[in-house]
Design brief:
Length: 218
């Protein structure tokens, strides 16, 4: 970080602010360690683009953390297409009481996830290398989440078979997610799913809310 990089300075200030520390509570140090590893190694290892490094806290860590209130009663959680660990590592840090499955097909990304699990001491994490479809029938969870993985119709086909009956798919999506609902109706009906609900996920003041979609498997 240099004085010539005002965006990164501002993002670092956000990350160390009292509001962010309060939001993450006693798990803040682990979140900050994840942020620092992502800042130092993320671009080099092809996990995030160079333009994302100066906005890690606002656009990635807090964005991912917006899903947490919707996972509060889950004891098992799956993160489909976990990638750099967003939101899966955030979830695992904040919910040490829940079993968290990080599902990721790319070897270099799963190597990263294994490293994070070990370095951060996340005993509740299970890293599963492969596509979500490869684990249909292998296990079920209370909630499946994901972030910017696929359009809702495809995402539902990938994710809902991993969800126990009565469980939920709670995903971080773009602002236009409402437009994805109608094309996904057939898939959602096949799982006897509830009507999709769209929420604003709010973390700390001054950070743009995240769009969250929730659907319950029947």
């Amino acid at each position: 970080m240099t004085e010539q990089d005002p965006d990164q300075l501002a993002d670092a200030a956000l990350g160390s602010s009292e509001s962010v520390r309060a939001f993450f509570g006693d798990r803040y140090d682990a979140i900050a360690a994840f942020a620092e590893k992502l800042r130092v190694e993320g671009e080099l290892r092809g996990l995030i683009g160079p333009r994302e490094v100066p906005r890690l806290w606002e656009r990635h860590l807090l964005n991912s953390a917006a899903v947490l209130p919707h996972l509060s009663t889950a004891t098992s959680i799956g993160d489909v297409g976990s990638g750099a660990g967003l939101p899966g590592i955030i979830v695992a840090i904040m919910r040490p009481d829940a079993q968290v499955y990080l599902i990721e097909p790319m070897e270099r990304r799963t190597a990263w996830l294994f490293e994070l699990r070990d370095e951060l001491g996340l005993e509740n994490v299970l890293v599963k290398r492969g596509r979500a479809e490869e684990y249909h029938g292998a296990f079920e969870v209370d909630v499946v989440t994901s972030r910017a993985v696929a359009a809702l119709s495809k995402l539902a086909r990938m994710s809902l078979p991993l969800v126990r009956r009565g469980g939920e798919m709670v995903v971080l999506k773009g602002r236009n997610v409402a437009q994805e609902i109608e094309p996904a109706r057939k898939v959602l009906r096949s799982f006897k799913s509830s009507e999709p609900e769209i929420f604003e996920g709010i973390t700390v003041d001054g950070v743009e809310p995240t769009t969250i979609l929730r659907v319950r498997r029947g």
